[in-house]
Specification:
single chain, 239 residues, alpha+beta, Jelly Rolls, 6-stranded mixed sheet, 4-stranded antiparallel sheet, 12 strands
């Protein structure tokens, strides 16, 4: 019956006291922990894997560089030509005609769409009427458009009663969206983001949040008698 050397795995007779291959003495044998033949097989597999990895590395290194994706490069930047100096702004009056509530408002009058010099004030005239008549259950609206500007803009003005005035008269400012809803039902309370003035005497000072279409409305919807008022309103913008 043959056994295997505990050191090199060489087959040896059961009666042999040392290995003919490596000279290992059987007196040094401990309890068996693993099959030496299996250990040799594992070493062979590891050596084979290392050889395979080495061959793959050589093949990849020899791949033609032209087959690799080229690195993207940013296009050359061409600087934009210097812009011309902004022209001086010449204030021009923009007067909205009073429109009865039963008539849809026309296209908004706009201020000239030109840049202003830094710090130059922007003034837009909305209305300057010495006498405006408002029929019972009716209203007048003055539509205007504020252009883009980096300035702080206020609508300022005054309403002064000339005849038939009482607490039924209302003055308020609406955005384009708010005006659409109110125009559909002018007898309803207008949803304005600003204060509503009641009566025939009012001093206006509305802060405008930005560019857009606005409607200054003087409503006589709640009264059965006509009114006559003097209306003056301007948009003033400062840095």
């Amino acid at each position: 019956m043959k056994r295997e050397c505990k050191f090199c795995g060489e087959p040896m007779l059961d009666s042999a006291t040392e290995c003919k291959q490596c000279g290992w003495s059987r007196s040094q044998d401990g309890p068996p922990t693993q099959n030496p033949g299996d250990k040799k097989a594992r070493i062979g597999v590891a050596v084979g894997l290392l050889a395979a990895y080495a061959v793959m590395f050589v093949l990849i290194s020899q791949t033609d560089a032209s087959a690799r994706p080229a690195r993207a490069t940013a296009p050359a930047h061409n600087p934009a030509p210097a812009s011309e100096p902004a022209p001086d702004y010449t204030s021009q009056p923009v007067v909205g005609e009073p429109i009865a509530v039963g008539t849809l408002a026309p296209a908004a009058a706009t201020a000239p769409a030109v840049s202003t010099k830094p710090g130059a004030p922007l003034n837009i005239k909305i209305v300057d009427s010495k006498s405006a008549s408002i029929q019972p259950h009716d209203a007048l609206q003055y539509q205007f458009e504020l252009p883009e500007t980096g300035q702080s803009c206020h609508l300022v003005g005054k309403i002064h009663g000339l005849g038939g005035f009482d607490r039924d008269l209302e003055t308020f400012l609406l955005t384009a969206d708010d005006y659409v809803f109110w125009h559909a039902n002018p007898m309803a309370i207008a949803h304005s983001s600003w204060e509503t003035f009641r009566g025939s005497e009012a001093t206006l000072d509305y802060l405008l949040p930005g560019a857009g279409t606005y409607h200054l409305v003087i409503s006589n919807m709640m009264s059965a008698s006509p009114k006559s008022v003097q209306v003056k309103a301007d948009v003033k913008c400062v840095s």
